[in-house]
Amino acid sequence: MEKVKVNSQRINISFTVNGEQQQLQVEATKRLVDILREDLSLTGAKISCEIGRCGACSVEVDGELVNSCLMRAYQLNGKSVYTVESLSENGLHDIQKAFLEEGGFQCGYCTPGMIMAVKTLLEKNKKPTDEEILDALSGNICRCTGYAGIIRSVKKVIQAI
């Protein structure tokens, strides 16, 4: 099925992704998740619900967790975006290791968004309470794990800090 294009006005945008400056000309209403996947070949953010309810496409923008399916190109100028790919530039990040060791994933589809939610949480609060952990993960849905492995993973990372 072909996507219907509502607005084909192209704009120039300049922003950073994983610390690298990007300058692109794209449709003003193109979604960040599509820019990442199609224009920059960063496929960590997954496309799932497409309406901001599941968190599979979560990335960090200017230090805040956002659903990249809801952010548009015209909102990106001057922003700093970090994706799950940024975490493994020097081998697996501690959060990724904990998810592997504690069974924090099964099919793995939600995992990049979950990992970005944990990253954003721990950047703001190195010792979150159980309630703060649940709140930070509340925008990310997993249909496979039942969340026990995910919570164990987060707690393991917190203990290591």
From TrEMBL:
Keywords: 2Fe-2S, Iron, Iron-sulfur, Metal-binding, Oxidoreductase. The keyword Ion transport does not apply. This is (2Fe-2S)-binding protein. It comes from Cytobacillus stercorigallinarum. InterPro entries: 2Fe-2S-bd, 2Fe-2S-bd_dom_sf, 2Fe-2S_ferredoxin-like_sf, 2Fe-2S_ferredoxin-type, 2Fe2S_fd_BS, Beta-grasp_dom_sf, Diverse_Oxidoreductases. Residues 11-87 form the 2Fe-2S ferredoxin-type domain. The keyword Kinase does not apply. Pfam families: Fer2, Fer2_2.
